[in-house]
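FW: tagging you since you asked about this chain on Friday. Here's the raw sequence from the shared folder, copied in full. Didn't touch anything.
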Amino acid sequence: MKKKVSSLLCVVFLAGILATAVVYNLSKPRVLIAVDDFAQSLAGKYFVNDPEMDIVFAGVNGSIEPYGYEGAENVTGIFERKQLNAVKETILAFESKKTHPKADPSLLYILETSSSLQKGRSVIDQYDWDPIHYKGSVMADHFEDWKEIVKGNGSRVDYFIVANYRRLPVSEDNPNYADPKAVMAWTEKNALPPVIGINAFNVEDGAMISIGVSPFEQGEVAAKMAQTILEQDIRAGTIPIQSNSQYIVAIRKAFLKARNMELPAIYEAFGRATANFYEE
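HL: got it, structure written out here
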């Protein structure tokens, strides 16, 4: 196992060197748009306060401090924060359509051990879920552990939320990552309470519904920032860093029907408008 980890670290390190070489030696851009945390760690952070290049980041879930972006004169961007207000509203919307709605439905967050999820875990744990009764978060070490958590908590909560499971090992003895579609399909089929994803791709993987960060907002804001830097010939640090405020809704209609669940019509309209409404 140690040899595999060492090899992986070497590959990541080499990828960082290659990414840096491509950015600087081959393209030498005036503005670098770096999307997601990996792009910051593999390339963006090496150009902090570069006198000839500005950085616009997007898709960053946690802090920008690890990349040296805090106070940098050539860095701006837009964060990618989970839209928990929208998730709460969706749960309450589900309850409003029930014959006997609960005033304080309970909720559990299930996650895997990847560093990005661990960084954002406290945000979800500390969010004001009221009137929803948030029962905390549970971390699964592998897929078999995930199954036990889903089965063991099914009767004690009204809803599950999940974010990512794409770095979930198959088992304690098998470090290979489980197929994410298989994880989501199993979860949707075996979870007693409804499962709400907080990434748009959850529904692509087979979830009933997800409330995810809008990729349109991430791309549009980053592009406009880059355009402003180029057109006005200013440093990125003069443009305030933004937090995202938009989200998208993805729905599988058949899964809603299977659970006899309903939502206000605007949810379907929203899903259809962004091509995230699945009829089957």
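FW: The chain is about 40% helix and 20% strand.
HL: agreed, and Strands lie at 31-35, 54-60, 75-79, 106-112, 133-140, 159-162, 195-197, 209-213, 247-252, 277-278.
FW: great, closing this out.
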